[in-house]
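Closing statement on the adenosine-5'-triphosphate sub-project.
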Amino acid sequence: MATIEMKNIVKKYGDGFPAVNDVSIDVADGEFLILVGPSGCGKSTLLRMIVGLEDITSGDMLIGGERVNDLAPRDRNLSMVFQNYALYPHLTVYENIAFPLRLAKWSDKDIDAKVREASRTLDLDEHLERKPANLSGGQRQRVAMGRAIVRDAKAFLFDEPLSNLDAKLRGQMRTEIARLQKKLGITTVYVTHDQTEAMTLGDRVAVMKRGVLQQLATPRELYEQPVNLFVAGFIGSPPMNFLPATVENGQVTLPFGTFPLAADKAAKTEGKGLLMAGIRPEHFEDVSVIEEGKLDSSRTFAAHIDVREWLGDQQYAYVPYEAEAKVQDQLKELARESDSDSLRTQLVVSLDASSNAAEDSDTTLFIDTDQMHLFDPATGDNLTVGL
Ligand code: ATP
């Protein structure tokens, strides 16, 4: 096991385009780190540089404290777990796990001890004589991991291992990988474009965009304290709502009303002209389900519900609003960058399951402005991060 340190890593391909641009990330021993971002953000390139499948243009890559820039992949002792697990179909589970040890010319006795130890850890004892084709996806995943742990690899590296599975199996395998990683305590770097995987699997998540690291934080911090518009729009489903906003005299004006804003947020944003407000769907509520005496009526507004989606434990309501062309263009750009098609001039609000707010009807909604973020529309920076 080992730490992985990436220091100012740059990768330029032949045409000079920086696929990875000055990325620095330290992965702690035993940590589960996720690299996430839209297609083309450079996450696979970064992973391939850790493994040694891609040259590093500049910067230092350290594994277990040792600089590995010039080491061949086989000398880095890392284990890459591929999408199809790359198991040998004609070999039994036992022989698949034993494979790297046979290559390394271990004795039969030592191989047997090592394979049985891995098989116990991975609950594969009863499957050792079976062939991969007869195993479930989860069992195959465990065999692939077994082959990695017998080698005492310093770290596991995954490149979108679940992307070609159906949704149900993906959910199961996600849990399986999380459980195994915790049990084995092996440093892991996992590439995905799926923000659900990113949020549920990782100790920390590195969000990338166009080769540049945007934020490196725990899933909770990313969700609650995104540093910029890109991270705010990329993490969360349905995504955060973005709205044009101005802040004057301790109040925020949105397309559908003016509401009080906490003093610390107002102090950071007052008089800065047109801003972009970000507020998550769950920070709205139908006032009719809020207990009497608990409702702050200065933060309510009339809304027309266009479409409603009832999910059993909650419901989403869609509330269109008017916005200037400039704001609409900005929202479109944001949607394009974050691979999201749901950022439009409409609010998506999450209402309590008991709300009777009906489709194509008017209702009164509460907006929790304490949970609102305010972004500089030019730089995308979150002006209220940490507040
Ligand atoms: P995806 O999820 O689509 O695989 P990614 O985030 O993993 O995307 P990379 O595959 O790392 O992105 O690619 C990052 C950038 O580098 C892209 O702009 C891509 O076009 C470019 N790139 C990748 N491989 C090469 C190559 N061999 N030669 C030139 N450019 C490349």
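Residues 13, 19, 37, 39-45, 193 surround adenosine-5'-triphosphate (CB under 6 Å). With this model delivered, the sub-project is considered complete and its resources will be redirected to Aim 3.
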